[in-house]
Amino acid sequence: VWHNCLQVIKDNIGEQSYKTWFEPITPLSLAGNVLTIQVPSQFFYEWLEEHYVGLLKKVVFQELGSEGRLEYSIIVDQGNDHSKPQTVNIPTKKVPAAVANSYSPERSFLKNPFESKAIDRHFFNSQLNQSYTFENYIEGDCNRLARSAGYAVANKPGTTSFNPLMVYGGVGLGKTHLVQAIGNHIKSNNPDKFVLYVSSEKFVNQFIESLKTNSVQDFANFYLLVDILIIDDVQFLSGKEKTQEMFFHIFNHLHQSGKQIVMTSDCPPRDLKGLEERLLSRFKWGLTADLQSPDFETRMAIIQKKMQSDGIHIPDNVIEYLAYSVDTNVRELEGVLISLIAQSSLNRKEIDLELAKAALKHIIEDVETEVNLDFIQKTVAEYFQVSLDSLKAKTRKKEIVTARQVAMYFAKEYTSHSLKSIGYHFGGRDHSTVIHSVQTVSDLIDTDKKFKASIQELQKKFKVKAV
Ligand code: ADP
Ligand code: MG
Fold this sequence. Notes:
The chain is of the alpha/beta class. Helices cover 53% and strands 11% of the residues. The protein has four domains: 2-118, DnaA, N-terminal domain (GMP Synthetase, Chain A, domain 3, 2-Layer Sandwich), CATH 3.30.300; 144-290, P-loop containing nucleotide triphosphate hydrolases (Rossmann fold), CATH 3.40.50.300; 296-363, Helicase, Ruva Protein, domain 3, CATH 1.10.8; 373-466, DnaA protein, C-terminal DNA-binding domain (Chromosomal Replication Initiator Protein Dnaa, Chain: A). Strands 1, 2, 3, 4 and 5 form a five-stranded mixed β-sheet that branches. The protein has a five-stranded parallel β-sheet with strand order 7-8-9-6-10, sandwiched between helices. Helix 7 (200-212) packs antiparallel against helix 8 (216-224) and helix 11 packs across helix 13 (330-346). The N and C termini lie far apart (87 Å). 34% of the residues are buried. Residues 136-138, 143, 169, 171-177, 302, 330-331, 334 line the site of adenosine-5'-diphosphate.
């Protein structure tokens, strides 16, 4: 009977799917109108139920009539000691072919004993980089929520409400570092937990490979053994439907059995185009936390920490200079540090401001090493969101007048231009206008707290360049 069923199935699905999902099935018995088949794992059973129930219904009906039923027997590995995996047939849930898809989520995952033999916990490679730890992950406003959620998860994997934990943020902001820190922390506290770090790209490639080599089941079984699954850059799954389907199943299984899932993405889940809705909705079960660009203080702290761990001394003013100049992301900041250290050792020179400026010039094109009038005008105009031309124009609009006065103030403070020359560069104004502007700004600094704060913020940009 089963043989006949297989013939029909074979004609209805692709060869690959047939080999993967139907060849491993063993027919066990036929009692009356109940056909029992043995499948290698719980996962396998669910996959069949989800993907092939219609087909199975059809063939059972054809072979056994409307009263026909299909039952599954699932090979189980009992107990946690891996010394001798036993094969037992659990009393199968009666699965009438007509009523599908009602597996109970509380039933624990049952794994294929042949698989578990191959994967010994002691040889399990977590794929973690041990240098990514919480200790060297600098905390700042930019990462506070993500970091503390990550820390909570690391201490109580699978039992906090942060499951899954989804960390998102732009490139080089510390996603990989943070999630690997979680993995390392868990591993050091619970050496026999299966922690697995995998990039989504690798996940996809492994899955494709398993399709090619007819080992999808091994692939699935492997992931179902994991206690803590860390999957990096899930945006990479977008558009890859088959892989998403597989991930969805793995996700559900792990989640149901209280296993922790940690994910990263380069954008918030709502912007993950090409990801299935049902998958996205799973992501929302837990906590989503973002990483922002580090602020100045955090950048300072990161540089200090790196230098300290490398045993290299850098003068404070250089650290400050770097932290001001490189405000994009941490990876870039590290790149600058590495290049700085390289140049210092190549040229046998101490790291000082001069060397830092030179090093930075190589890397970042638009770094200006000296505060000149142009730079002041450009920076102030940008800050007040007025056009550069308007600073030199006749207009007397209030916000432009303010910006113009501030720019003149800084020109007086940070350049060696005479009052006359400054006036000249601001649309041919005379020196008394410059004096008046400088005075107005000084007064405002004394009386207006908000204004003072703006000036200080601008000052930071100039001070560093002016040293
Ligand atoms: P992403 O995965 O978001 O692209 P990474 O985790 O690879 O970023 O981080 C880039 C580099 O910056 C890594 O070397 C990492 O150690 C470092 N880094 C990022 N954030 C921090 C931080 N808060 N403290 C210390 N180092 C950090
Ligand atoms: Mg990364």
